[in-house]
Design goal:
The complex is a heterodimer of chains A (about 110) and B (about 110). With about 110 residues, chain A is an all-beta fold. Chain A has no helices and 11 strands. In chain B, a hairpin with a 5-residue loop joins β5 and β6. In chain B, strands 2, 5, 6, 10, 11 and 12 form a 6-stranded mixed beta sheet that branches. Chain B has a 4-stranded antiparallel beta sheet with strand order 3-9-8-7, with no helix packed on it. The chains are: A mainly beta (about 110), B mainly beta (about 110). At the A-B interface, β4, β5 and β10 of A face β6, β10 and β11 of B.
């Protein structure tokens, strides 16, 4: 069974540009999460989807971040326009059950210059 | 709010040395506690967990005991190997909540 996959693995963009990160959860997992780790700091929760609905988006930092999960399968996280402080590693995770074990992808390293 | 504090790294040990990575937490409810590990180039993997006080989670020779009285969940291994080199994250999930709350991570390097 394939694990959680994320694309791209690394993205380097200039301040003001737009970047879209993609996450493919484990097949059959209704719950999908986005987390972010800024250099040297904690991994922080961004939001949680149940199928295509946003269950909890309390961790989204501001309105430059837009997450979607059309059709309840893969998810995208768009940052527009990117700022320097958005640099970090963005992790996606999925779980089968609402409080089940979360399986993480390898992350996307975003560098904004 | 909830938080997790773990010892700063990096930690460098010789093979077969004893490992302790300290982790303490603050939570408003009754959390479940976790240790995740990230090997180079890979995603986070659940290493072990404990869901109630005095529970001991164990896996791959690693152990951690849920200590409610000291709000701690320290990770231990009696004899580390080079293959244990990774970043270790302590985390909690408070009762009824789904988001994980992580510590900053501790990088462990084991040298032969």
């Amino acid at each position: 069974e394939a694990g959680v996959t994320q694309f791209p693995s690394h993205s380097v963009i200039e301040k003001g540009q737009t970047v879209t990160l993609r996450c493919d959860p484990i097949s059959g997992h209704d719950n999908l999460y986005w987390y972010r780790r800024v250099m040297g700091k904690e991994i922080k929760f961004l939001l949680h989807f149940v199928k295509e609905s946003k269950q909890d988006e309390s961790g989204m930092p501001n309105n430059r971040f837009l997450a979607e999960r059309t059709g309840g399968t893969y998810s995208t996280l768009k940052v527009q326009p990117a700022e320097l402080e958005d640099s970090g590693v963005y992790f996606c995770a999925s779980s089968q059950d609402f409080l089940g074990e979360q399986y993480f992808g390898p992350g996307t390293r975003l560098t904004v210059t | 709010g909830d938080s997790v504090t773990q010892m700063e790294g990096p930690v460098t040990l010789s093979e077969e040395a004893f490992l302790t990575i300290n982790c303490t937490y603050t939570a408003t409810g009754y959390p479940s506690l976790f240790w995740y590990v990230q090997y180079p180039g890979e995603g986070l993997q659940l290493l072990l967990k404990a869901t109630k006080a005095d529970d001991k989670g164990s896996n791959k020779g690693f152990e951690a005991t849920y200590r409610k009285e000291t709000t701690s969940f320290h990770l231990e291994k009696g004899s580390v190997q080079v293959s244990d080199s990774a970043v270790y994250f302590c985390a909690l999930r408070d009762s009824g909540n789904t988001p994980l709350v992580f510590g900053k991570g501790t990088r462990l390097s084991v040298i032969a």
